[in-house]
Design goal:
This protein has 202 residues and is mainly α. It has a single domain, classed as Alpha-lytic protease prodomain-like, CATH 1.20.1510. It is built from six helices and no strands. Helix 1 runs antiparallel to helix 2, helix 1 runs antiparallel to helix 4 and helix 2 runs antiparallel to helix 5. It starts with 12 loop residues before the first helix and ends in a 7-residue tail after the last helix. The relative contact order is 0.20.
């Protein structure tokens, strides 16, 4: 369904709290995963951190709908997120392939494992609550943001699998394989955002 540019009713307090919590969490998640990706040379953590950055943008867009000083349309916001996702997916693929070719093994990352475990707990809960509020209010941007949160949980699972296998067996390509496995999710999310599609369940 094409996401229409809408004029929003006053925000429910539940939506505002959900987005504020999301923003705070995504700031932590993005910072920790970026630090872990750089220090551990992990393409999988780079992919996870990339999605965290886009989710931070998505949560900000939902909040901007109720900020009088801004007039950001859902279509513009969605396409901005889409372009960023395409670019980040390309970066992840290049880094993962170079990591395999150069045979530079990523190091075990305790912060990376910790943040992906935390995301596996937090993001499904946030996605569920956002879907519920999106159904109640009919807000398209919030419905799209719920999809972002659900995708983040899937990426956390993929990333954690790659990090865990690398930590246990010290096989370098596990991490790069996890990054490449996460790329189709990034591309799917990018296409959906460009077309203005949201999850039908919302």
């Amino acid at each position: 369904m094409q996401a229409p540019a809408s004029t929003c009713a006053p925000a429910r307090p539940a939506i505002l709290w959900l987005q504020i919590i999301t923003l705070l969490w995504m700031l932590v998640e993005c910072a920790v995963s970026a630090y872990a990706a750089v220090t551990a040379h992990s393409p999988a953590l780079l992919a996870f951190g990339s999605d965290s950055l886009v989710e931070l943008l998505s949560a900000t867009v939902v909040l901007l709908q109720w900020t009088p000083r801004f007039s950001l349309s859902e279509r513009t916001a969605a396409r901005t997120a889409s372009v960023l996702l395409y670019a980040l997916a390309g970066i992840v693929v290049v880094i993962a392939i170079l990591s395999i070719l150069l045979k530079r093994p990523p190091e075990t990352s305790v912060p990376g494992i910790a943040i992906t475990v935390a995301a596996l707990i937090a993001m499904p809960v946030l996605a569920l609550l956002k879907r519920r509020e999106a159904r109640r209010t009919g807000n398209v941007a919030l419905a799209a943001d719920a999809v972002q949160s659900a995708t983040c949980a899937w990426l956390a699972a993929i990333t954690l699998a790659g990090l865990g296998l690398n930590a246990l067996f010290h096989i370098a390509w596990f991490d790069s394989l996890a990054a490449l496995a996460a790329t189709p999710l990034l591309l799917k999310e990018a296409r959906a955002a460009w077309r203005g599609h949201t999850c039908s369940c919302c």
